[in-house]
């Protein structure tokens, strides 16, 4: 893995990403989660300016409704919530998994972050950052980055299974 493949860091106060080859960084070939959080391991966007759909691949240590990835979200680089995709159930036997959502009102060159929320632990997994025009790459965020948006609507209405 070259230097360009290393996860980017968005906050100087966070711990460094796992070293290459550790199996803990997103995008690895295994289906096992890297830790206690939900990792965003791939992001694709399609559509047109101001009206994009996102397809987000997650890997999470779901155990059932007591512990599951409950949503993924798209944020601006300064932490403004642009879109949240609610996940209505756990994915214990489906790892990793992909879910799509939109429309998301962003432009091709907007710097964006895509991260997931792990119920009940919060934002602890790996995120991806970039633009629709240039693509997304792994980035590690501080667990308190834009933490206030956790209370923003929409919120999960419960867990089906």
Strand and helix map with partners:
Blueprint lengths: L7 E2 L29 E10 L2 E9 L8 E9 L4 E6 L10 E8 L7 E8 L7 E5 L3 E6 L21
Parallel strand pairs: 1-9
Antiparallel strand pairs: 2-3, 3-6, 4-5, 4-7, 7-8, 8-9
In words, what does this structure look like?
This protein has 161 residues and is mostly beta strands. It has a domain at 33-144: Immunoglobulin-like. Helices cover 0% and strands 39% of the residues. The chain has no helices and nine strands. It has strands at residues 8-9, 39-48, 51-59, 68-76, 81-86, 97-104, 112-119, 127-131, 135-140. Strands 1-9-8-7-4-5 form a six-stranded mixed sheet, with no helix packed on it. Strands 2-3-6 form a three-stranded antiparallel sheet, with no helix packed on it. The radius of gyration is 15 Å and the shape is globular. Residues 1-33 have low confidence and may be disordered.
Features:
161 residues; mainly beta; Immunoglobulin-like; 6-stranded mixed β-sheet; 3-stranded antiparallel β-sheet; 9 strands; 39% strand; disordered N terminus
């Amino acid at each position: 893995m070259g230097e360009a493949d290393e996860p980017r860091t968005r906050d100087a106060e966070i711990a460094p990403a796992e070293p290459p080859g550790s199996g803990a960084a997103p995008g690895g070939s295994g289906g096992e989660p890297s830790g206690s959080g939900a990792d965003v391991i791939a992001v694709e966007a399609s559509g047109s300016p101001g009206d994009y759909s996102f397809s987000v691949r997650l890997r999470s240590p779901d155990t059932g409704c007591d512990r599951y990835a409950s949503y993924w979200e798209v944020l601006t680089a300064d932490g403004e919530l642009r879109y949240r995709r609610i996940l209505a159930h756990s994915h214990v036997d489906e790892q990793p998994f992909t879910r799509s959502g939109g429309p998301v009102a962003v432009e091709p060159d907007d710097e964006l972050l895509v991260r997931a929320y792990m119920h009940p632990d919060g934002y602890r997994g790996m995120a991806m950052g970039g633009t629709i025009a240039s693509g997304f790459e792994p980035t590690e965020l501080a667990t308190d980055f834009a933490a206030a948006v956790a209370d923003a609507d929409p919120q999960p209405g419960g867990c089906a299974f």
